[in-house]
């Protein structure tokens, strides 16, 4: 039974693609270029400031492939606006993905040049799904990688996704909530993500709630009576320290009604200084168990500074910097043909050359279970180490149930714990070098000879 992906009704509509995919599809079909092809999705180089990436989005990618289709409206539009041939339109109408998929599990730590997904199918099929697959895997991998850095910075303090309002659209906001959960976030403020993905939902109040009342104490009291469970009050609408004292008075009054003040939130100002002052006021008032939540333009550097500086903050709400991955919003990722009709293929462009053939990542660990080395080799190699790419789909159908989100979150935590010491820190370090097996050098030479023969008109 398919789980709902939590994304839009157009998520598996194949018209959601770059138009050149359709143009190539027509040419492939009409010219009989329909042998089996393999494409691999990888990142050429890590963005500045990133020592590793976290793979995410596989569940949505698989759901897309399972349901990928053209509807009548789309086919009619194609026939009218561009005049695709009847042969191509018929093939598009009948399109169903029937290929194989191998991928690294969601939550896996990976590095440059390592394929995180391989599609093997008839060439027109494998080509046509490219744009949407990149779209789905790129977004969640970007956000999960950002979220993982925040998790490392917070050092086990809970993190909440506050980023929907600044996300680049509804789907992006939903999938960002999911990706942050993959990387270890504790919850989200996005209600629909809570329903679709089973993520714990967290919410406090806005400054407007305070401003709508005659005075701050009245606002606190009304909110407490309306939301007596997991009560968190926002303190910095007017005077933060004065609001903290009002919160103490309210908590004492409400104790007889069985209402407990679970937390207070700080959303602006000098969070280090204010959290220390508010902590003193709360403790002096007997509210030693009341948590302090901080939010307001935070990124991993700010979180690390607060944690390392000993600020008495118990959890963090992260918004814009998370859902937009503001310092590294895009990856130099590609989905490239590596094999066609049983022969290796590769791109030789300067600065964008690719390794040919179906590949496997072999990961080896040291005695402390830290990543010691990754070796990129051919898929049929018998190298030592854990094989990161695993079978996911065969003949268009998933061959196993993908893990639930919380299981992925646990696995991602283990992956982060396995990072070598330099990559584990926020500061940039020398790139993790992935070993290239000599078999790939030999295969590249074979592919180059094949290209040269074809270019000179000789029989390959």
Task: Tell me the layout of helices and strands.
Elements: H1 19-31, E1 36-43, E2 53-54, H2 58-67, H3 72-81, H4 86-93, E3 100-103, E4 109-110, E5 117-122, H5 123-128, H6 130-154, E6 159-161, H7 170-183, E7 187-188, H8 191-197, H9 207-211, H10 216-226, E8 231-234, H11 240-255, E9 261-266, H12 271-284, E10 291-294, H13 300-308, E11 315-318, H14 320-323, E12 333-340, E13 343-344, E14 359-365, E15 371-378, E16 386-387, E17 390-394, E18 397-398, H15 405-417, H16 421-424, E19 435-436, H17 438-455
Parallel strand pairs: 6-7, 6-11, 8-9, 9-10, 10-11, 15-19
Antiparallel strand pairs: 1-5, 1-12, 2-4, 3-5, 3-17, 12-13, 14-15, 14-16, 17-18
